[in-house]
DNA sequence: AATTAAATTGTAATCATTACAAATTAGTGT
DNA sequence: ACACTAATTTGTAATGATTACAATTTAATT
């Protein structure tokens, strides 16, 4: 996904197109590793040493607010982020710490009568295939 | 649930029966409000002023480890706890902050081939019935 | 009652996240 | 191209949940 495409997306969402915001979103789109803020920050600093940690938090928050990112709250101590906003489940391997996506159709998950559900998260944890071998 | 019953449960799990641990578990069993550690601590201190916050954390951890409690990681900033260990979903109202249980049969949720799933969590958020009215 | 390993306590440290204010910049209009 | 304004970025300091740790106490056993 190139900068031009991201610019268009930001424009359609009414977001200012700052280099920092574009870089964060580009990284998330190209690296579906569900990174946390610190991981994003360390990557950003590589190409722009003056990139601020606060900016990372600001960008991630903004991108979540406008629906371009999904926060993945599967860790106890930090929030991860996912640029794939289609509905799917997240599996965390407690051994290697990696997050895996898995298919999980929304209709398989039940809801509550009279409640307005705005977000649905399905989190599994256990041992991944690689760690079992 | 009385102290005698809890004593039996702890005994069967090989847990020491300390007054603090019993008090924490009793509170969780009798108050299905999915409290966080601070809420539990404040309640404990009411009847025992020397109750330590660390003890609350220790007890909650131990009770989770032996399967008597389920950690509910639906908040971004803190962990809640649930003494109902049967499989069900959790709904968080973003307006009032309350957590609601909802029925959610395990078979409705899909998994991943070759992965060993040890824990399954289904978290919804949105507006609860009361806040909508 | 003595013993011992585990639990409790209080304090200090850790670490992700947020608050805040000053400097910078993107987008708009001239 | 230039000026303007509101939004964004930056750096530092604060917050708050959780953990580390060492000394004291205690549950369970001999």
What features would you describe in this structure?
Chain A has two domains: 3-82, Winged helix-like DNA-binding domain superfamily/Winged helix DNA-binding domain (Arc Repressor Mutant, subunit A, Orthogonal Bundle); 89-132, Dna Ligase, domain 1. With 133 residues, the first copy, chain A, is of the alpha+beta class. Chain A has helices spanning 3-13, 19-30, 37-47, 53-65, 129-132, and strands at 70-72, 80-82, 89-93, 99-102, 116-127. In chain A, the strands form two sheets. In chain A, strands 4-3-5 form a three-stranded mixed sheet. A two-stranded antiparallel sheet of chain A has the order 1-2. The relative contact order of chain A is 0.13. In chain A, helix 2 crosses helix 4 (53-65). Chain A has five helices and five strands. Chains A and B meet through strand 5 of A and strand 5 of B. Strand 5 (116-127) of chain A pairs antiparallel with strand 5 of chain B, so a sheet runs across the interface. Chain A binds a DNA duplex (30 and 30 nucleotides) through helix 4.
- Please tell me the CATH architecture of the largest domain in chain A by its name: Orthogonal Bundle
How many domains make up the 3D coordinates of chain A?
Answer: 2
From the alpha carbons, calculate the radius of gyration of chain A and give it in angstroms. Answer: 16 Å
Number of helices of chain A: 5
The helix/strand order of chain A is: HHHHEEEEEH
The chain pair forming the largest interface, with residue counts per chain, is: A-B, 35 and 35 residues
Give the low-confidence spans of chain A: none
Instruction: Please tally the β strands of chain A and state the result.
Output: 5
- End-to-end separation of chain A in angstroms reads 35 Å
Q: Please state the oligomeric state of the protein chains shown.
A: homodimer
The CATH class label of the largest domain in chain A is Mainly Alpha
> Given the helix and strand composition of chain A, which structural class is it?
alpha+beta
Largest sheet of chain A: 3 strands, mixed
CATH topology title of the largest domain in chain A: Arc Repressor Mutant, subunit A
Q: Give the neighbour order of strands across the main sheet of chain A.
A: 4-3-5
- Indicate the mean pLDDT of chain A: 95
Task: Give the full name of the CATH homologous superfamily of the largest domain in chain A.
Answer: Winged helix-like DNA-binding domain superfamily/Winged helix DNA-binding domain
What share of residues of chain A is helical? 25-40%
Tell me what portion of residues of chain A adopts beta-strand conformation. Answer: 15-25%
């Amino acid at each position: 996904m190139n900068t031009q495409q991201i610019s268009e997306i930001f424009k359609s969402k009414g977001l200012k197109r700052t280099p920092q915001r574009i870089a964060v979103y580009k990284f998330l789109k190209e690296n579906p590793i569900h990174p946390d803020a610190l991981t994003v920050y360390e990557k950003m600093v590589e190409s722009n040493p003056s990139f601020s940690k606060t900016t990372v938090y600001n960008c991630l928050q903004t991108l979540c607010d406008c629906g371009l990112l999904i926060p993945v709250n599967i860790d106890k101590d930090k929030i991860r982020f996912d640029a794939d906003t289609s509905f799917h489940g997240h599996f965390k391997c407690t051994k290697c710490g990696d997050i895996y996506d898995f298919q999980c159709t929304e209709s398989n998950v039940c809801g509550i009568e009279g409640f307005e559900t705005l977000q649905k998260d399905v989190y599994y944890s256990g041992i991944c295939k690689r760690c079992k071998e």
